[in-house]
Amino acid sequence: MAGMTIKGFKKRSRRPMSLGDRMFEYGNFIFLTLLMVVTLYPFLNTLAVSLNNANDSIRGGIYLLPRIWTIENYKYVLGEATIFHATMISILRTVIGTVLTVFCSAMVAYTVSRQEFVLRKFVTIAFILTMYINGGLIPNFLLIRDLGLIDSFWVYIFPGLIGVFNLIIIRSFIEGLPESILESARIDGAGEYRNFFSIVLPLSTPVLATVALFSGVYQWNQWFDVFLYNSSNVELSTLQYELQKILQNSNASMTSKSASDGFANVGQQGSGVTPFSIRATMTIVASLPIIMVYPFLQKYFVKGMMVGGVKG
Questions:
Q1: Helix crossing, 120-132 with 164-175: angle to 10°?
Q2: pLDDT tens digits, residue range 14-51?
Q3: Contact status, residue 209 vs residue 60, Cβ threshold 8 Å
């Protein structure tokens, strides 16, 4: 009887869609489908080029599927002797840099979010000013040199330990937490450290995951600081920097061969790879780890951006 009542209620509550509602849904479906195609096509096209014969790719006309399948591009890129070690350095840099950045940014954000902190406005403004005022490349290099971070692994970690953008997002999220929870903990004798580690950090998981994704992508993609500070130390070279060197060497080889043999002969007499195919292969190799990690952080990323951005 109850089942029949609920079923009948569902039937009665179902309102037929009007023409305007149907057009709205169809429009949304078409728009989102086009957006998906526009978003996915560049990646799928790059993947197809990376799996296509390099000499054949020069002709163009590669869209979603390779014309001549091959893995020679990946063998060439991943066959370099320094790639494995550079990948380990990149992974180590990404993991350590992300953990320390999230932790330090959360600590500072919690401090400036407290109303009882007298200098909260001054400290916040001082941090924000650094987003618009920068000393420049040479003063930064001199500072890094004077700090003794040249030819050091920690030059990848310390300069970007606290990002102002990340700080603002975390602070906005923490300010949105119920103050009554922290007050109850203080009444029970909990100090600021206990509140931070036992209450604020667990409740801030969405925004911390968001900042971790930002920091992880930044650390993984960086190569210019390697060029500036550790280019002479092969042991501290990262994957992105090694891929950049491979591309430069390929471009230089292509230029020299083009000058002597002509562009057409390069495609026939080359080593099986071209700068175009190497660039596509590098893009896939560099982006694949981030693509694999993102699905696990997606729900936290969306929630953290929404909650952290509304109040900010």
A1: 140
A2: 667 777 788 888 899 999 999 998 989 988 999 999 99
A3: no
Segment (H or E) for 247: helix 239-261
> pLDDT, tens digit, for every residue of 197-211?
989 998 888 889 889
The tokens of 167 are what? 């700080």
pLDDT value of residue 308: 46
Structural tokens at position 20: 């305007």
CB 237 within 8 A of CB 156: no
In whole angstroms, give the CA distance from residue 267 to residue 258: 10
Report if pTM > 0.90: no
d(CA 292, CA 184) in angstroms, rounded, equals 41
**The token pair that represents 232 in the structure block:** 């002479």
Return the structure tokens found at 122: 């001054």
Take residue 183 and report the two structure tokens written for it.
């007050």
For residue 277, what are its two tokens? 């195919």
For residues 201 and 190, give the distance between their C-alpha atoms in angstroms, rounded to a whole number.
15
pLDDT at 261: 56
The CA distance from 143 to 21, in Å, is: 61
Three-class SS state of 149: coil
The CB density around residue 17, as the number of other CB atoms within 10 Å, is 11
| Residue the block writes with tokens 């981030």 | 290
pLDDT of residue 9: 45
Could you tell me what percent of the chain has a pLDDT over 90? 27
For tokens 């197809």, what's the residue? 48
Domains, the chain, with CATH or none: 82-312 (1.10.3720.10)
Which amino acid type is present at position 281? T
Phi and psi at residue 69, to the nearest 5°: -70, 140
How distant, in Å, are the alpha carbons of 44, 205, 235 from that of 75? Answer: 20, 40, 22
